[in-house]
Amino acid sequence: MATITKTSPLAPKGGFPSLPVISGVRFASVAAGVKYQGRTDVMLAEIAPGSSVAGVFTRSATRAAPVLDCQAKLGTVDDPNAGFAFLVNSGNANAFTGGAGVAAVGHTAGAVAKTLSIPESHVYTASTGVIGEPLPHEKITSALDKLSADLDPEKIEDAAQAIMTTDTFAKGAERVIEVDGKPVKIAGIAKGSGMIAPDMATMLVYIFTDAKISQPALQALVSSENARSFNCITVDSDTSTSDTLLVAATGASGVDVEGHAGFAEALHDVMLDLAHLVVRDGEGATKFVEVQVTAAVNDTDAKRVAMAIANSPLVKTAIAGEDPNWGRVVMAIGKSGAQADRDRISIWFGDVLVAENGWVSPDYVEADAAAHMKGEVLLIRVDLGLDTGAATVWTCDLTHGYIEINADYRS
Amino acid sequence: MATITKTSPLAPKGGFPSLPVISGVRFASVAAGVKYQGRTDVMLAEIAPGSSVAGVFTRSATRAAPVLDCQAKLGTVDDPNAGFAFLVNSGNANAFTGGAGVAAVGHTAGAVAKTLSIPESHVYTASTGVIGEPLPHEKITSALDKLSADLDPEKIEDAAQAIMTTDTFAKGAERVIEVDGKPVKIAGIAKGSGMIAPDMATMLVYIFTDAKISQPALQALVSSENARSFNCITVDSDTSTSDTLLVAATGASGVDVEGHAGFAEALHDVMLDLAHLVVRDGEGATKFVEVQVTAAVNDTDAKRVAMAIANSPLVKTAIAGEDPNWGRVVMAIGKSGAQADRDRISIWFGDVLVAENGWVSPDYVEADAAAHMKGEVLLIRVDLGLDTGAATVWTCDLTHGYIEINADYRS
User: Fold this and answer.
1) A128 touches chain B (CB under 8 A)
2) What would the pLDDT profile of A208-237 be if each residue is shown by its tens digit?
3) CB contact (8 A) between residue A317 and residue B407
């Protein structure tokens, strides 16, 4: 994998945010030498008994062994008095590793269960990195005593660093809301940079809250909010074999949030923040792009058009070149497969109306659109002029940096 | 549009082939200054009375005015004693140009009809180049007298040059077969380099034959062979608004080829040659890649997998880096949406079996696969181990050259 030394120009200027401590969750990370040298590469999160754990995973037909294991375990509580654990390593995806991959998950999850005295079915693992190489699971299991001894409620930023691969910055997001006069906290971390595409949860995302909510209610909330956040981003249209989003609610706040709209909104905000951060760390990205599509025949068609624009190599290279090339947007609408009437389409770059009624707008001045394209955060807006279907997705540009990371180096 | 001065490394070493003269067809080209300076940019082909004309066109929902006009005219014979004409300009696509675009087609097609004394419904136009700019049709119509005077049966190579945009070499292909002891000739030209994707005829292709065949029979043949040639190539997954394939059969050989398998095969060969030449001129391409998928549940699923591999930015950049990164092939299979069982998949690079039974092959030596990747013509073969579905598609790699052509220059 390429060695990336430069932080993405789209990284938040303030660095990693100050995340609230979530009562009932402790973190530790360690340099186990799974693949990388001189950096941490394994993180352990211990979650208190009585917590609810919900999640969504990649829909890839070739998903990795840890993903299959997590999917089998989700919703299971074998001992109501026992806690849960998340164990994540970077540097090796343990994907397409056959029976040995399944065995490796058993080794690491079993060792965590023994170390923390919890059922193995309460241990969720994930692996991210190179596909097809055997996971050196003994390097991970031999680090568990140290990880367990180091567990600390304040070490979430270190955990975010340990799960990075081609990421150029650690990603965190938080919200604190008041429910019935009491604070409820949400803190999340994510990793992801390449192999990011729609119809999945993105690479690895872990969110923690001290809210009180049943597992089925939390799962329903996570699934529906995922559709409005991680499933609306794309870096390169390539879907990972390992994508995992897990949310743990410890209940330590004592505040029941089931059915509470404010909590749903705060959770959505944290998920969308993390999704945007993944795009901002897209391999080689120099522009953060929002694509809004309105007036499609339905929401599905609107998303089809938005994703066709966001994934088009010609649109993405035009953005990299700061070229308000609306002809390529027209091309992407046309190829999307969605219902479209050429003469009803309107296109804006930012606030600049570039095309309407099947041709360039009579008031269009290219210098105005070109000025918008020079910004770091761009908006491409398309109105199909048909009905009320709408969708918004987020992506980045396609630059020499992407080619460098993925072609100029051997994985 | 970028100025490309270097010929693709994948161009045929022998240059433009020697194409047979097709009796009943004459060509002319001219430098009309539509956009480019110092080169030809309009070609006219005159086709004898009694010929059959068949074609397929882009399925884009935002297709260009000339495409809509051709589709309306196809199969029409308003005067059995009158010939046909193809008029093509490069430098301007006359796409997304509203009512003015429709009017421009009327101006040019009408002028050709008058110049050659044929019905306007017998004139097929096409335009390729920048989207969204008005076509300076008077530059084309004022060149028609010169074009008409210059018509010559031997000038097909000049015609192939006049229709180029970002192409780095002119593309031609031919076959001569014997039917009942008499020769039947086929000669074709194509242009296309970027905005090349599945589910369409590629950019612009014109094929001529002296075979005798009715229009409906020729149309059926062209449609079915298109599915096995142009619809199986992809450069960048972006579908053009102007793709046009037209085939004219003059009947001058006096040989009726209706239902003749040898003619169908020869026509297929010419179409596939031209399709491969378009991939070999893919923007920035340095590798020509065949992707074979076998043992899918059906042919549709096989093509889905093959196209997911051929369009994956991560696979294409790995090929550019000469990296036998089979993990990315696994990823592409997984995201394709096709039915797949991880533990039944086998993957080869060339003759080298890299993965089987859900993991790396025990006999795999990376140096062998790496040696294959250094070649100019590559094979990625996937056996899904499920049923008899099969598909083969062709693509090229994704390099800095693609970014340079599409991002570093303003269109």
Assistant:
1) no
2) 999 999 999 999 999 888 888 888 887 776
3) yes
